[in-house]
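TA notes, week 10

Several of you asked for a full example with nothing omitted. So below is the full record: structure tokens for the whole chain, then the designed sequence directly under it. When grading your own attempts, check the secondary structure regions first.
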């Protein structure tokens, strides 16, 4: 998948997105924003904000910045913000989540809802989320992760041949997220429908000196060498 095929897919999806995905993806979205409302303290970045379905649910004390690569999706988000008079939405910006134009440590909480399996390079996405999130800040991710066995795994493998048309990867692996050395998965909960989605509450365990998505670290590298968290052991599945 490349950025152009993502943009083409969401240009097609934009007119009916809310009617179809608004409902289907609502439980995980609601859970993630409720979590953000509990753990975020000031400035929140939502990447892949889409049509802005989540925006009315953020508490008013937070300042929300949303970015997306799809102009038709963003236009709907802007209309929603105007219609509902959402004064806590600081900005909605056309931007690539893999190349964020924000300085390091700009946000205390960073959120990616149903985006990680859509972007061309998920590892790069995660590096960027960590870069713009302050050390110890929270990174909240909700996504569909591939089943590892059984019928669902077989269907997802078959569907993955259609990724470009679908605009997402049905075979996206959970360990793409959990194997990040400096991302501590504090909690994992399963979300409806049919337990297809997972909400990950992560702590940004980067050292203060992690500079950029290139993975280059400068002085103080020792702080990056915090013992790797065995996140797999920490995952607790709750319905
Ligand atoms: C499945 S939709 C999810 C939208 C919204 N988060 C929601 O909960 O409904 C995925 C969104 O991610 C956006 N997206 C995909 N790749 C992106 C990238 N590299 N940078 C920013 N946004 C991206 C798409 O344009 C689309 O709006």
């Amino acid at each position: 998948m490349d950025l152009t095929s993502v943009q083409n897919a969401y240009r097609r999806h934009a007119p009916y997105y809310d009617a179809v995905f608004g409902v289907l993806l609502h439980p995980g979205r609601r859970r993630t924003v409720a979590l953000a409302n509990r753990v975020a303290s000031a400035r929140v970045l939502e990447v892949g904000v889409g049509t802005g379905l989540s925006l009315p649910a953020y508490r008013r004390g937070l300042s929300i910045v949303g970015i997306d690569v799809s102009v038709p999706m963003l236009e709907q988000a802007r209309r929603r913000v105007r219609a509902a008079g959402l004064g806590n939405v600081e900005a909605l910006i056309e931007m690539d989540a893999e190349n964020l134009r924000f300085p390091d440590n700009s946000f205390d909480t960073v959120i990616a809802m149903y985006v990680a399996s859509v972007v061309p390079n998920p590892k790069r996405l995660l590096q960027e989320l960590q870069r713009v999130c302050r050390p110890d800040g929270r990174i909240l991710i909700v996504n569909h992760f591939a089943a590892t066995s059984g019928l669902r795994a077989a269907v997802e493998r078959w569907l993955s041949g259609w990724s470009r048309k679908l605009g997402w990867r049905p075979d996206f692996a959970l360990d793409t997220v959990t194997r990040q050395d400096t991302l501590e998965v504090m909690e994992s909960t399963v979300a409806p429908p049919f337990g297809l989605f997972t909400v990950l509450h992560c702590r940004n365990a980067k050292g203060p000196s992690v500079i950029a998505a290139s993975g280059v670290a400068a002085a103080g590298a020792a702080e990056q060498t915090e013992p790797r968290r065995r996140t797999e052991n920490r995952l607790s599945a709750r319905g």
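Residues 6, 10, 21, 25, 29, 47-50, 53-54, 67-70, 73, 96-98, 113-115, 118-119 surround S-adenosylmethionine (CB under 6 Å). Use that as a sanity check on your answer.
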